[in-house]
């Protein structure tokens, strides 16, 4: 679709929230109404409408659905969670960041289409904020992870791995001046070191075309900067020679071939510039890399990465390395389903981004914080601004009234033509520090660290932090561990 059509698609998706959500729920029930899980809740083909769904189906956690999920993963071809005409085609692995081990989230074939559609809307949104942004290339650090196969023969992989291994991505032609600078072979290499090296090499070789630099999460961009600090000399040598060194870092033949094609012919002038920028100290004797992103990619106009929630702690470091380039948190997504878009991606503090849930992605309900009964669930069009809710989704992949675990705050105001409410990510449900009756969530902890870090001496900054509760003495207290960067280089202490 053309840009205007894509932008119109957003308006169409969000114009009639109630009607769209009713249609989505009806579609899901038509597909999955015969499933064993919904039958166990008291739904039948004769009484499987929206009203019966809301009256009979309880809220569910992963543990509630786990026996059904494991049956499908084990090869049960009965309509366990989804209907017989809508079989589970793969399992998406949750990150496991809040609950320990990754969860197996069922997905169906056309879920990929919904996810890709949402991603296709990012470029026209960003181009509205920064006209001409899509005329150059994006340097995106994307990585696949090794995938597994369930006992029943279905793939189990991360959401990003599923997207990147799709035919649409794998079969795209390589063009450093349109789309992404990273060749498909580099992105699809499961060796993270080779993949990062190859993506940096191609991104540096075509630095003039790069108008945006991104990664899935803010921390991914910091990983790229740290990798550049360790490997800039080898990268400069390869760019000067017009081919990867032998044996070098790149041992995968397909990756070497893709990088060799991107580096030809050699560019001695660029190699000298990389050496000069990366070997020199930052002005004022501060730590390595001040403004390095903007210095190496001078036409980059923004960074794209999720910087909300736990990623907010990395915003100051990204500001240091990019000389203050704006950061866009564009997509709100989960393993369960893609959820929404930030319709004002360069507006304000990136850690405070607001997302508009796209009502075609799934059926959304919201549990007011402090309540526990499914009868208290609120539909998307009826949330109250200023109130916090736990997100509950019903997906095409067979999750019914599933508690995602995200706590969102409904924000006042709608975006332009959108009738869909906006939400701010607050925290993961249950992620709390607690001493006695005190409870501190991750947002409060982040604010405390930000305030305390202002007292650090010049040339020092917080790279990362973690925390725990110490109840060995009275009174109990929290212990916060900081990982600091100090001049002249990124020394860890």
UniProtKB/TrEMBL annotation:
Positions in coiled-coil regions: none
Residues annotated as domain GH3 C-terminal: 444-489
GO CC, one annotated term: cytoplasm
GO MF annotation terms: acid-amino acid ligase activity
InterPro entries on file: GH3, GH3_C, GH3_M
Domain GH3 middle per the UniProt entry, residue ranges: 355-428
Keyword line: Ligase
Family: Belongs to the IAA-amido conjugating enzyme family.
Protein name: Uncharacterized protein
Organism the protein comes from: Paspalum vaginatum (seashore paspalum)
Organism lineage string: Eukaryota, Viridiplantae, Streptophyta, Embryophyta, Tracheophyta
């Amino acid at each position: 679709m053309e840009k205007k059509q894509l932008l119109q698609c957003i308006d169409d998706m969000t114009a009639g929230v109630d009607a769209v959500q009713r249609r989505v729920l009806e579609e899901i029930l038509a597909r999955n109404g015969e499933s064993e899980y919904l039958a166990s809740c008291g739904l039948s083909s004769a009484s499987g409408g929206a009203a019966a769904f809301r009256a009979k189906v309880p809220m569910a956690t992963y543990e509630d659905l786990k026996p059904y999920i494991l049956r499908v993963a084990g090869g049960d071809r009965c309509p366990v969670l989804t209907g017989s005409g809508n079989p589970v085609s793969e399992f998406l692995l949750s990150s496991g960041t809040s609950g320990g081990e990754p969860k197996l989230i069922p997905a169906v074939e056309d879920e990929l289409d919904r996810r890709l559609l949402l991603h296709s809307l990012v470029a026209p949104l960003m181009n509205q904020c920064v006209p001409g942004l899509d005329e150059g290339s994006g340097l995106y650090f994307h990585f696949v992870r090794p995938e597994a196969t369930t006992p029943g023969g279905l793939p189990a992989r991360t959401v990003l791995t599923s997207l990147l291994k799709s035919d649409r991505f794998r079969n795209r032609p390589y063009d450093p001046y349109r789309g992404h600078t990273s060749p498909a072979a580099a992105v699809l290499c499961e060796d993270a070191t080779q993949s990062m090296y190859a993506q940096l090499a191609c991104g540096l070789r075509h630095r003039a075309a790069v108008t945006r630099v991104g990664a899935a999460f803010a921390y991914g961009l910091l990983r790229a900067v740290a990798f550049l600090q360790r490997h800039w000399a080898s990268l400069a040598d390869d760019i000067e020679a017009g081919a990867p060194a032998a044996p070098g870092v790149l041992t995968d033949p397909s990756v070497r071939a893709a990088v060799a094609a991107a580096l030809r012919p050699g560019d001695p002038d660029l190699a000298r510039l990389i050496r000069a920028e990366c070997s020199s100290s930052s002005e004022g004797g501060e730590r390595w890399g001040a403004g390095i992103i903007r210095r190496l990619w001078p036409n980059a106009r923004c960074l794209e990465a999720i910087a909300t929630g736990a990623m907010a702690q990395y915003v100051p470091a990204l500001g240091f390395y990019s000389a203050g380039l704006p950061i866009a948190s564009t997509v709100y997504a989960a393993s369960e389903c893609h959820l929404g878009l930030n319709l004002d991606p360069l507006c304000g503090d990136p850690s405070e981004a607001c997302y508009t849930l796209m009502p075609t992605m799934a059926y959304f309900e919201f549990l007011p914080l402090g309540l526990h009964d499914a009868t208290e669930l609120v539909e998307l069009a009826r949330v109250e601004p200023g109130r916090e809710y736990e997100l509950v989704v019903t997906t095409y992949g067979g999750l019914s009234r599933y508690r995602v675990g995200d706590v969102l705050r409904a924000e006042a105001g709608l975006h332009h033509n959108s009738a869909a409410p906006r939400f701010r990510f607050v925290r993961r449900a249950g992620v709390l520090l607690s001493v006695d009756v005190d409870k501190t969530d991750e947002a409060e902890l982040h604010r405390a660290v930000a305030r305390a870090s202002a007292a650090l001496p010049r040339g020092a900054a917080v790279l990362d932090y973690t925390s725990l509760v110490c109840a060995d003495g009275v009174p109990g207290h929290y212990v916060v561990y900081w990982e600091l960067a100090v001049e002249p280089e990124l020394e860890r202490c």
